Amino acid sequence: MPHTVNAVVVAEKNAAAEIHQIIVPDPGPGEVVVDVLTCGVCQTDQHFQQGEVGDNFPYLLGHEATGRVAEVGQGVTSVAVGDKVILNWRAVCGECRACRKGEPKYCFDTHNASQKMTLTDGTELEPALGIGAFAEKTLVAAGQCTVIDDVPDSANAAVGLLGCGVMAGIGAVLNTAQVQRGESVAVIGVGGVGTAAVVGAKLAGATTIIAVDIDDRKLEQARRLGATHTVNSRQTDPVEAVRAQTGGFGADAVIDAVGRPETYRQAFYARDLAGRVVLVGVPDPSASIELPLIEVFGRGGALKSSWYGDCLPSRDFPMLVDLYRQGRIDLDAFVTERTSLDKVQEAFDTMNRGDVLRTVVELSA
């Protein structure tokens, strides 16, 4: 029987994120209904609110979540009722040209639920990143669930962040930049994703890890989580500072976790010859950049983008949960504050002030 639950919806561009009652249908073939436990407040949800991702309003927000499987549809065998899961927005199809080439991390046809959740008047909702987890229950494809039954409830808020921001940052370093032991890494912008990139650089064995930001609070947090050097780019030229800490050459890999033309230009010039630039910060759709083509040619190396940290959730989530359990990743440090479903708009404001790495909405246990 369909469920009527509370959820956070944005009715139109730049409207407030407000609580509405929504209808979650019974799961169809290949679908799962999940009782949401926690959901992180991510910048991407605000991009949906502001119409920067699309215009398929109304949007059901939330995507960085843990939950417990409540119902499964026909043919679902990968999860069972009662399983605790992290939700992901890359449920690979196994059939597209990327999957057939053995590159499922680039799957071009990732699965979402076929049915739509709706408002009580029947208006169809567009779930953020195919998840819509600022809700008491949500409907997803079974492949969007990674089982984590061995994680205690006290860790739900922390491991749920692997569903987006933390995975994006760590994956940008480990999967996209493929940082090796002894290399140098600079991270421009150390909010949630950038700080996760610092953690990823430490995991990879980088010996010089340079955090760049305009906020000394964020820089101090990055230092606590693994940065060996910090640069306040309001006070110091970040390109010159990175070169100064790398023998005058530049870093082997530079991660742009901001996604603005000026930060990408900094990343481009702060890398060593044959170094890698990785863009993981989501740019404004109207943004563009101009670089001298001879510099692109002459510096060699690679200019890459990292979409979801080039991750495979079924492979990477369990690995990172294990590292968390071993004490090698401090995911708890990313949870700055906890809040309730009716406080999402306030959480956006807190995020915009730079007061948190992550606010996490906690629902039922």
UniProtKB/TrEMBL annotation:
Catalytic class of the enzyme: oxidoreductase
Record's signal peptide: none
Pfam families: ADH_N, ADH_zinc_N
Domain Enoyl reductase (ER): 17-361
Chain segments annotated as transmembrane: none
Family: Belongs to the zinc-containing alcohol dehydrogenase family.
Matching PANTHER family: NAD-DEPENDENT ALCOHOL DEHYDROGENASE, S-NITROSOMYCOTHIOL REDUCTASE MSCR
Protein name: S-(Hydroxymethyl)mycothiol dehydrogenase
Organism field: Nesterenkonia sphaerica
